[in-house]
Amino acid sequence: SPQGCSGRGVSRQLCPRGADGTAIFAMSDQKDVALELHVTNVPSDPAEPQRDGDDAHEALLTATFPPELPYSALRPYDGRPVVCLANQNGSQVECELGNPMKRGAQVRFFLILSTLGITIQTTDLAVELALSTISEQPGLEPVVARARVIIELPLSVTGVAVPPRLFFGGVVRGESAVRRESQVGSAVSFEVTVSNRGQSLKTLGSAFLTLLWPHEISNGKWLLYPLQLELTVPPGQREPCSPAANPLRLALVPLRARGRGGR
């Protein structure tokens, strides 16, 4: 009978498993995963080894893969050669296990599967494993290796303030008296960079960044007033949002954010 175990990459690092025993793919930037297969031809009842478990002639394993996880390559487990032939789109592969596969024999190997078809909508994967032989083998049912998928984007965010220190002072104006950018106090620019160190999403996905700053003091007066926000995205990508700034509609000069003192 075939035994499937899902592993991440080709380093034989096993996937974690959920409470129901289902393997979990925590996808980030790996391009492939390994499906470990262990096929045995042993007696069904060790207490009566002579009852069955004969040589299996033309023993063959057929693995069928979902479109999101096509076949990519074959890796031996312990150096023993295994011959596998895949169809054109990698949706199915047939592996020769021996002719005959001797009584008591064990065959172990890895099928390397490409993750490039996995999208943000992929939630689970199923690979069907079916054994066949021209020898008599009653009750030889397919086995399905299942896994859940979690997409992990290795996002990072960095920020810098220019200047790094601010000094508050000067004439305090009420909000109704402020008309121009020059009246809101010393300027400070905050540059925030969000980057994705992993593979890009091929389908629509959403990532959110929340920025918090001290915009007012305890009595409700402005502290850091947002004058202008500028978004820069890679070529070919649309701007992810239209940030709201300058709620008082002050007359602006070049791009910057200012702070003002107040009581």
TrEMBL record:
| Top-level lineage group | Eukaryota
User: Which PANTHER family has this protein been placed in?
Assistant: INTEGRIN ALPHA, INTEGRIN ALPHA-7
Subcellular location per UniProt equals:
Membrane
Q: Name one GO cellular component term.
A: integrin complex
| Residue ranges constituting the Integrin alpha second immunoglobulin-like domain according to the UniProt record | 24-148
This entry's Gene Ontology molecular function terms read: integrin binding
Provide the GO biological process annotations: cell adhesion mediated by integrin; cell-cell adhesion; cell-matrix adhesion; integrin-mediated signaling pathway; leukocyte migration
Q: Which InterPro entries match?
A: Integrin_alpha_Ig-like_2, Integrin_alpha_Ig-like_3, Integrin_dom_sf
Under which name does UniProt file this protein? ITA7 protein
| Membrane topology listed for this record | Single-pass type I membrane protein
Q: In the record, what lineage is assigned to the organism producing the protein?
A: Eukaryota, Metazoa, Chordata, Craniata, Vertebrata
The protein's organism comes out as Urocolius indicus
Task: Name the keywords, alphabetized.
Answer: Glycoprotein, Integrin, Membrane
Domain Integrin alpha third immunoglobulin-like, by residue range, is: 155-252
